[in-house]
């Protein structure tokens, strides 16, 4: 499993780190939610700016980012504007999409920016290079709320993200059967075995996909997303205590070496 250092946290060691999305429409709710989530048993916080009503005012966005950073202290912060095409709360013009992400890098208040792969494929921008130059990690993402692509498509998309400069690669897809779940897990296992230098997140959404949220320690995903208890940023997210319990049960892949042997005391 590849490692990625973000602030004082290292993704890719032990269990996948738990991320909770911060969703709020106005300043009052934003600050209250940031304080509430900061006290939860999560490792990373994602600000879903596509739900924020002032997203088109760049000066307000800096204020909002400052409030969040103050509230969450030293926890790593992902900045995400998720477009409607990929399950987001609203749309903005493409030039502003890149300007906004570039500005969030400039503030020095966020640690990772989430950019949709499709937007980079269809538009020229230097925002990836700009982020790297300013020591902000780049998460490239792709979402399919209709289906699960083939195992080879999942794998190649992750490889393409890495080729385009992603520090962290994320795909979230919709399984409709356990065969789809197995394709997701098989792809994840292939990536961690063949390209162990790639930090990635490969997850199945919805009820059927829940297993994929728990198996990162076995199959290589370095991050998993939990519900805040108030909002779910994607279908199938579990509350943190439930998720932590599942990670404890399914993980610990090295313990099998002690099966049938007496543990040293």
UniProtKB/TrEMBL annotation:
<keyword id="KW-0456">Lyase</keyword>
<feature type="binding site">
    <location>
        <begin position="46"/>
        <end position="48"/>
    </location>
    <ligand>
        <name>3-dehydroquinate</name>
    </ligand>
</feature>
<comment type="pathway">
    <text>Metabolic intermediate biosynthesis; chorismate biosynthesis; chorismate from D-erythrose 4-phosphate and phosphoenolpyruvate: step 3/7.</text>
</comment>
<comment type="similarity">
    <text>Belongs to the type-I 3-dehydroquinase family.</text>
</comment>
<feature type="binding site">
    <location>
        <position position="213"/>
    </location>
    <ligand>
        <name>3-dehydroquinate</name>
    </ligand>
</feature>
<feature type="active site" description="Proton donor/acceptor">
    <location>
        <position position="143"/>
    </location>
</feature>
<comment type="subunit">
    <text>Homodimer.</text>
</comment>
<feature type="binding site">
    <location>
        <position position="82"/>
    </location>
    <ligand>
        <name>3-dehydroquinate</name>
    </ligand>
</feature>
<protein>
    <recommendedName>
        <fullName>3-dehydroquinate dehydratase</fullName>
        <ecNumber>4.2.1.10</ecNumber>
    </recommendedName>
</protein>
<keyword id="KW-0057">Aromatic amino acid biosynthesis</keyword>
<comment type="function">
    <text>Involved in the third step of the chorismate pathway, which leads to the biosynthesis of aromatic amino acids. Catalyzes the cis-dehydration of 3-dehydroquinate (DHQ) and introduces the first double bond of the aromatic ring to yield 3-dehydroshikimate.</text>
</comment>
<dbReference type="Pfam" id="PF01487">
    <property type="entry name" value="DHquinase_I"/>
</dbReference>
<feature type="binding site">
    <location>
        <position position="21"/>
    </location>
    <ligand>
        <name>3-dehydroquinate</name>
    </ligand>
</feature>
<feature type="active site" description="Schiff-base intermediate with substrate">
    <location>
        <position position="170"/>
    </location>
</feature>
<keyword id="KW-0704">Schiff base</keyword>
<dbReference type="GO" id="GO:0003855">
    <property type="term" value="F:3-dehydroquinate dehydratase activity"/>
</dbReference>
<feature type="binding site">
    <location>
        <position position="233"/>
    </location>
    <ligand>
        <name>3-dehydroquinate</name>
    </ligand>
</feature>
<keyword id="KW-0028">Amino-acid biosynthesis</keyword>
<dbReference type="InterPro" id="IPR001381">
    <property type="entry name" value="DHquinase_I"/>
</dbReference>
<feature type="binding site">
    <location>
        <position position="237"/>
    </location>
    <ligand>
        <name>3-dehydroquinate</name>
    </ligand>
</feature>
<dbReference type="InterPro" id="IPR050146">
    <property type="entry name" value="Type-I_3-dehydroquinase"/>
</dbReference>
<dbReference type="InterPro" id="IPR013785">
    <property type="entry name" value="Aldolase_TIM"/>
</dbReference>
